[in-house]
Each structure stands twice: as C-alpha cells, then as structure tokens.
Design a protein that fits this description.
Layout (H helix, E strand, L loop, with lengths): L24 E2 L27 E5 L4 E7 L5 E3 L9 E2 L2 E3 L5 E3 L1 H4 L1 H4 L4 E2 L10 H4 L9 E3 L9 E4 L2 E3 L1 H20 L5 E6 L5 H13 L3 E7 H8 L6 H4 L6 E8 L4 E9 L2 E10 L4 H15 L4 H6 L1 H17 L5 E6 L2 E6 H26 L8 E5 L6 H11 L12 H13 L16 E5 L3 E6 L7 E8 L8 E7 L9 E8 L12 E7 L5 E7 L5 E6 L7 H13 L1 H30 L6 H17 L5 H31 L5
Parallel strand pairs: 2-12, 12-13, 14-19
Antiparallel strand pairs: 1-22, 2-3, 3-4, 3-5, 6-7, 6-8, 9-10, 10-11, 14-15, 15-16, 17-18, 20-21, 20-23, 22-25, 23-24, 25-26, 26-27
Helix pairs in contact: 4-5, 6-13, 8-10, 8-11, 11-12, 15-16, 15-17, 16-17
The protein binds adenosine monophosphate.
Length: about 650
Amino acid sequence: MCKHIISYNNSTNIHKLQLPNTALYKTATFATLKIMAKISINLATGSIQKPEIIVGIDLGTTNSLVAFINPEGNAQVINDLGKGVLMPSIIHFTANNDTVVGNDAKEFLISEPQNTIFSVKRLLGRSYKDIVAHKDFFSYQIIDDGNDESLVKIKVGETFYSPIDLSAMILAELKHRAEHALKTPVKKAVITVPAYFNDSQRQATRDAGKLAGLDVLRIVNEPTAAALAYGLGLKPDDLSHGDEGKTIAVYDLGGGTFDVSILKINNGIFEVLATNGDTFLGGDDFDRAIIDYWITENKLDKQLLINNKELTQTLRLKAEEAKVALSTQNLFNQKVGDIFCTIDKQTFENLISPKVAQTILACQNALTDAGLAVADINEIIMVGGSTRTPLVKQKVASFFGKPVNDSINPDEVVALGAAIQADVLSGNRKDILLLDVTPLSLGIETMGGLMDVIIPRNNKVPTKAGRQYTTSVDGQVNLKIAVYQGERDLVKENRKLAEFDLKGIPAMPAGFPKIDINFLLNADGILTVQAIELRSGVKQQVDVKPVYGLQDEEVERMLLDSVTHAKADVEQRMVIEAQTEAQQMIYTCERFIQKHQTLLSQAETAQTQIYISDLKLIANTTDKNDILNKIEILNDYTRPFAERVMDTAIATAMKGKSI
Ligand code: AMP
C-alpha cells in the first residue's frame, strides 16, 4: 500500500527533508555509495569568483621559481630584481640571525656551510628516521631528538627551525619577488610537489605556504603541471581523446632528485598511474663524477679535499660550469689554482652513463608498475635542468622509441603549468575544464537525517545529476532542502553546504507533485542546486560555495571516517529507513480508516487498528527486522482494502458505460 515511502508530513508549514514532518518520497532507489579508502588526488581549498592574480610556484629542491599569466593570457615566469628567473632554494643565516634567501645566500654555501640551508625540500614532512641514512649529505645541523616519529628540526646557531619554517622563508621571498615585479599584492598560490610526495609532505608544503602569507589554493603534482604547460589536457582534442585518453611519461631530472611519472589524461582528468625514481640522483651526481675525474687526473689527495670545504665547493661550482658547457660544446678547459679542470664531452658521457642508465631502469619500472609497454606512451615530457644534457635526452628518446618534448625550458615548465592551473582556479579561463574531480559526495538530507547522494565522490567536474521526489501527504506547499557533502550515511556526520526552501507548491494530494532536484557542479567548483515542482513549475535555485572549501586533511579524515564507520552506518541507515517506512505506514493507514470507513467492516477496522498499535509500539525501536515484520503484517492485511477503493472508483467511473 505505501511501500518505499521514506518521509511524510502532517502539516503545510515549511518542511525539512530530514524531519518527520517532511513530505518527500523518493521515486528512485538509493544510490549505492562506493566507499574508497584512499585519496587519489589533492584539491584546492577555494573557488574564486572574480579574476585576480594567483601565482604558480615550483618549490624546488635546488631552485624555486614563480610564474603568472600575463595580460596577453600567456604563462610567464617572474624575473625580478635582476637576479634571474631561478631562485636558488637556499637560506643563509647571518651572525645576527638575519636571513638572506636565494642567489645572495648561495655564496655562503662555501664559506659558512653550517649556517646555510639547502635542499630543505628533502626534509619537508620527514622524521629523523626518514633521513638518517642521508644525514651526511647536509652540511648544517639536523637534530635527532630521539623520537622516530616527530618531524626533523634544523639547528642554526641557538635557534631551531622546522623545514616548514625554512620552506616558508623561500616562499616568502618568491612572494616578495612576484609582488615587486607585478606591483600588486600576491595572496594566493598554487604550489607544486613531486607526484610521490605523501600526505605529510603535501601538508607540510601547504603549511609552509600559509606561514609565508599565501593562501595555497591547490597542491599540484609536478608532472601534472608540466603536462599542463605543454597544453596537454587543455585542448578540446585532448579532452575528447576517446575513452582511452592519452598516456604520457614525465621524466624529471633535477639537481638532486630524479623521478619519472606515468600519467593518464582523460577528459581533462590527470591520473598518476605510477611513479618511480631516486630522491638522491641528479645533476649533482654528474658534478661529483667530474670532480672525481679531476681529482684522479690531477693526482690530488682526496682527504685534503674532505678537509678543505672551501676548495671542495669551488670545484663543485667549476664542475657544474663544465657540465653545463658540455651540453653545447665538446671541451671544457680551465684552471682552479694549480688544478687543471679539463674534460671533454665523450669522457663526461662515459662518466655519467651508469647514472643515466639508472634513470632508464626507473622508467622501465614505472611502466611495469602501470601495466604498460613503451608503445603505450603517447608523449614524453622533459623536466628539470639536467635534461639539457644531450646524453640524457638521447637515452630517454631511445628507450621510449620516440622524440621527447623539450621545447619548453625544463627549469620553467613546472612553474608555468602551476600558473596555468592557478589561472583556471581564478576563473579567467572559461574555455577549459577544471581538471578535477569532486573530493566528496554531494547530496541532500532525507527523512531520518539520511544522506541521499546525488553526485558521488570522484565524479569529474563539471557534472550534472538529479533525482525526482514527491510528497507523501496531502497539501504540502513548502519544502526545505538541505545540501550536504560527505561520505557518511547520516548527514549529521557530513558537512552542511546550504539549506533553502522551495515555497509555493500548490496544495496537491500526496504523491502528486513531481519535485526534481538537480545538482550542477560547474568548472569553478560551484554547486548550483535547483528544485522544481514539475506540475506547477514552482522553482527555486541556490548557488552553493565553496564546494572545495576543505583542507586535504579534512577530506581525508571524512573519507577515513566513512570507511571506519561503514558497517555501522549501513546498519543505522537500514534502521532509519525501516522506522521511516513504519511512520509512513501508520500515517497512511490511519488516514485510510478515516476516509474510507464505509468500505470496511467493524471487525476489519478493529483488526487494522490493532496492527497499527502493534507497529506503533515498536516503530521507534532499533529492531529493524521486527519493524519490517510488523509493516508486512499491516501491509498484507490492508492490501485488499486498497483494491476495494480501486474497484469502487472503477465502478463509479464505468457507471452507465458499456465496453
Ligand atoms: P633543477 O633542479 O631542475 O633546477 O635542475 C638543476 C640541475 O640542472 C643542476 O644540476 C644544474 O647543474 C643542471 N643544469 C642546468 N643547466 C644545465 C645544462 N645546460 N646542462 C646540463 N645540466 C644543467
């Protein structure tokens, strides 16, 4: 008689979907919630309404840089204060604890290594245990506080700094450069991180941004940014590249780190299929190979160099100069004091060949992990200064069997991509899709405080979805619609985004109105919810924002909660659904007795009332089976009465007519 009813109402006031006096019943079945344990993407923290400058920042191990979209609409790196585009990620602390960041700090690497911090990115989000194997790499003091779990601290003079503090100093300097060059305050940024960064490292990066006075709208994977800079995933043909999408390899060889990522770009969504690499492999190794060669050639005492930090650093810089020169010429020939710093290209290539082979092996491993073969890769993108070494390009192209993409400056490509991502977030680029998916499900509150999911999580945006509801009591004229975000079955565990009223529905019998609730999630991450009663055309619409107003860790917590509580939530949902159905059954049967007294015998009325009382007694308990059982008894008993109403109606309609 009244199966599937999930809510009911007994007055004509404004009704909220979750309250017992609401009047909606869903004509579609519940969406099955797919609960996922892992976040596969990281999301921005806000959607922006009016265009403004949002910079893209490549916070690198060796160098950092900042880019923006110029008035012509092109991504451009910021070259400010006459110091070049690349800002060394180096901080020097002076004797009175002032800081010098960037180019001016670099020279202190030689003279004051203990007060000059480099490669801080390697320490971000790391505990002492994580880095102890490499602690000799750092010339400054890293503190072992005996606690394996706590994040590392760096001691300079008598002061302790966290890698977040130090990264914030680098970011603050980049912010300052950008503000100086653009002559406008810069408050918002997109920052890139390696694809293999874990949540702790990503969060540390975000915190560093915050500390530098930046609202970090999004943490973007470096390979994703590089692909964006090459326009991949932006052009319409990439967006509609068939169901297969495009598979690309991003080969990133920097100063101290190497990684290769295999990305799938499909309909504007970037998915990291696999990453591989070595966080202690890069151009610095090439420099070291050259130094070792010079030591041998000049028959120098290695111990002498170990004790003479200044000479070591001078040779290191000279070796780098030689390496860079050998990218475009065949011979490098200079002197440092009595030391002959000579090397030819062939010798250099022989020296670095094992290191390059190591990167090729990592490419093979990444492909294997992604379950792909070389032939599956559509494009290869080169990132990082060390990809300028001809042997590197050659070996990568030969492994993948096709030419590599290296037309964009490999130092700048990540920052440029970050600026493009920032531009999309700023709302300036309406022509392209926001390259994202919804982090959490979106839905409305229904009877019993249940979450009815309309757009499931991980759905790509923009997207549109809707569902039809109807009233289950006569004469309901208003309806309250509450919109939530989250994975839990009960809305009180989720996050409320908005609430609005659909007013002025003409009074109609229960089940008669057809109320369409539609969710439209646009490319800016703004959700528009529209409710329309189809018979009368009564309509109400609200914009809900921001959908992405959650920190990554909040999203993660909400997802983890949904997994932890999945079983209990499902049980609770089933109990609430049974209770709701019971209330609806009682309400409908009582009204039936009132309205159709004449169709029932006295005994039938009495028996129906007994069954109603039985159901009322247990309707609010948590024994779902008992409730469903009593509903069934009442349903079975009253079903013939409903048929009698139908027969009477048909008999009346047919009176005087012949078939
Ligand atoms: P990145 O970490 O991406 O800034 O890359 C820095 C590394 O690229 C350093 O090891 C540089 O010595 C190296 N590099 C920069 N320019 C060149 C070049 N022209 N040829 C070879 N290596 C280079």
